[in-house]
Amino acid sequence: MKRRRKKYDLQIVILLLILTIGYFVYNNISSEDRGIKAYQEALKVYKDSDYETAYQIFSKVPSRSTLKEPALFRQARCATNLGKKELAVKKYVRILHSNSKSSIVPISEYNLANILLDLKDKRAKKHFKNIIKKHPTSDYAIASEYYLGLIEIDNFPENPKKLEKAKDRAFINFKTYIEKAPDGRYSLKSVDEILKLNVKLKNYDNLLIAKVYYANGDYEKAKEFLNKTTLAESWTDFAKNEFKLGNNEKGRYYAIYGLKDHANSVELSEVYAVIDDYIATYPTRKEGIVSLVNGGYKDAGTDYIAYLNCNEVVANNLKEACYRTLYEKYPNGQFSADSLYNLFISNYLQKKYTDAQRLGFLHQKKFPNVKSSSAITYYMGRISNKLKHYEKANEYYKQVIAKYPDSYYAYRANYNLYKDDGILPFLNITPMPVVFPYKKSLENNLVIKLALLKDYDLVEELCKKDKFIQSWIAYQKGNYTISTILARNAMAELSEKPAFDDLRWRLVYPLHYYEIIDKNNGNNNPIILQSILKEESHFNPLAKSFVGASGLMQLMPATYAEITKNHGITGDIFNPESNIKAGSAYYWSLKRNLGNKDLYAISAYNGGIGSVNNWFTKLVYNDTDEFVEQIPYPETKNYVKKVLRTYWMYGNIY
Questions:
Q1: Which of 226, 271, 306, 579 is 20 to 30 A from residue 349's alpha carbon, by CA?
Q2: What is the pLDDT of residues 138-152, one digit of tens each?
Q3: CATH number of this structure's domain 514-653
Q4: What's the CATH number for 103-199?
């Protein structure tokens, strides 16, 4: 009997436990569903600027919902917009007291500090300091320096000694701000406040102020403060500023002065920037480079000048000698890897395969992962093939595809591995939309939830440093060019590239206008046309180059007029469909007149059909690689590689 009772009691306990768990699970699910519904409804009203109603609906988000914190944040924003600052303070304080570690917290504390500052509440100072302490690398920490400076000024004591100390603190705050953000929102205001303090400015301080004016485009003011600095330490700033003012002779004077005796006293990037500006003042790059080469400089920057000079050399034997001298003189310099690569490729093109292979081994050992690594690995495969080491060649090709999947040379390696598939392995693609760049398996992540709820403004604030999310936000707002560039730069920063099915690739290579391209491909490979469009205009239908090339396919007005007349195309050059139709027809005419080869048509699209026909007679080549590597126009050579790389990526992604 006792056993039965114990068994019965145990069953009751288990049943109660199941019911309790079920209740909590149901309650949490119910809270989340109600939270999503309320947040969506409130956000819609908020976007219509009905902040009173939005505030009330956001309050309906249950405390158990993961959306409670953003709902409180939105309520604080509503209260601020309604002028109810004390109410906003309460909501922000509630977020801070939640001990949450989400990215909403620093924004909330920053907004709270600003409201308290408006209310003349002494707690503002504590919160600004807290932001700097807890989130030192954030934009909010940088801005907090500016506000702390203002607080010091607003509370200057009458006691002379204390006043001087307060001035010093304010000066340090404003100075810290302009050091970290010379082009920031408050940089000019910080400079104004520094000047009002009447503190004694040192050489470095004047240079900082000059940099702020330069960054904000006030070159006359920048000059005024540069004149208060030491030329030996500020020569790059003097030179750049004079170039901006259009005083090229004076800019050149400062550049030469610095390169002769003071190049080692400034950062290399600044020296290179001045060299680029200097060269740009001459009618041709060659003239500017020759002028610098003949200067006989000995300090920092000389390797860059020599490198630029080698890039201008056309003849293979002279190019090889130039890069050899450069590499031997600066074996560990910033341009040594590229110099060694150019030596390598020069030997390859001259069919000195054993010498090239030796240089390739050296490059791979000394520079295992640099910009030219994909090309070196690919051509080591080509050399192995030439030397009849076929298995080794295939190993190199597979290595290129595995390590550098998004490179032009991965495309070439794929061709060499699977020649039966033809030079253009992709003929059509399956369009897929651009979606949030991280998988839905992370749906519990707050940012992803807000993204799915289309709270783009808050997502943008929470993820300022995630370029992929910033790219996605720009895409959602219709800023396709900015979106693509942000995603491209973010992908370039990744040391290891993700698989082709990773959603981030769609942001780098979206299919804008593909439907129009596919419909009007005119017997062209539509993916090639899509690739040309992307590289030409980055999806900006109003793009216009400095020479006048216009629209998505960047056609010259005269070319566009002739094509539209011959093909009966109507519409403005900036009309997407008309421009694409004309671009497709133009590409087909180039291809038809160049042996029906896409490689030559792509080259002609950038370099002109006359140039390509000229290269046929002057260049000595046996295959695609030898032709591309010998294209004498650096811009066209890079263009061909970019278009074919983009073609390769579109094919793999879609």
A1: 306
A2: 999 999 999 999 999
A3: 1.10.530.10
A4: 1.25.40.10
